[in-house]
Specification:
By secondary structure, the chain is an alpha/beta fold. The chain has a single domain, classed as 3-Layer(aba) Sandwich (Rossmann fold), CATH 3.40.50.300. It is built from ten helices and five strands, in the order αβαβααβααβαααβα. Helix 1 packs parallel to helix 10. It starts with 28 loop residues before the first helix and ends in a 17-residue tail after the last helix. InterPro entries: P-loop_NTPase, Polyphosphate_phosphotransfera, PPK2-rel_1, PPK2-related. GO terms for molecular function: polyphosphate kinase activity.
Amino acid sequence: MNTDPYRVKAGGSVHLIDWRTDDDGGLSKDEGRTLTAELLTGLADWQERLNAEAKQSLLIVLQARDAGGKDGTVKHVMGAFNPNGVQIANFKVPTEEERAHDFLWRVHQRAPRAGMIGVFNRSHYEDVLVTRVHGLIDDATANARLSHIRHFESLLRSGGTRILKFYLHVSRDEQKQRLQERLDDPAKHWKFNPADLTERARWDEYTRAYEDALTTSTDAAPWYVIPADRKWFRNLLISQIVLDTLKDMHPQFPKVNFDPREIEIE
C-alpha cells in the first residue's frame, strides 16, 4: 500500500478539509482486516529485532479529537508488540511539579530508550492544542512552542530515535455517533466525559490549532493524517506505516561471541 498520500509534506500549510475522514483505500473491510493481520505478524518480528539490537528506538505519537480512536489504535495495532519492548505514555493535565518546568520537561523523560518502542497517547502537542483553544497561551507562545517542538524532535532523531506522528482524522458526524454509543452502552459509560461536549463545541478552533501543529511535519518527524472514520482502515494504514519504518530502520540481531554448534547441553 502506498502511504505517501497520507503524509504531510514538510514546509507547507495544512488544510484538514483537503483530507478525507472516510477513505477506505479501495478495499473492503474483510480485505483490510486480512491485510492487517499479516502486517501485525511482521510488526512483532521486527520489534524483536529492534529490542535485541538495542541501538535504535521508535517513537509513535497519536493525536486525535475525543473519540478519535487513540485507545483503539493502541489496542489493535500496538497490541502486536511484546509488552516488554513498549513504553506507553499518556500526557494529561500537568501536575504541579510538571508546571514548574518547561513544557517539554515531562515529555523528554518518557522518550523511548534504545531498543524500545515508545507510544505517546496524547503528547507534547497538547501544549499547543488545548492550551491554545482555551486561551491559556497566546499565538506568539504557541508559535514559539511549535519551534521548540521541531528542535526537540530533531534532537531525538539525532540520538537514534525515529519518530512517526499520526493525526487520527475523524469527522464531526462520526464523533457524534461514537460519543452516543458511549452513552447508550452501560459498559462504556466510564469512557464518556461530559467535558467532551465542551470540547466538541470548539470544533473549528481545534481544527485551526491542529492545522498549525501539523506544520511541524519534517523528514525527520513526519505527520500522517489518518482517515479514522473506518476503524479497520485506520488500523491497516498505521500498521503499514509502522512496519515500513521498522524495515527501513533495519535493526539486526546482535552477533554472539560463541559458536552454538560447539555447545552441548547435558
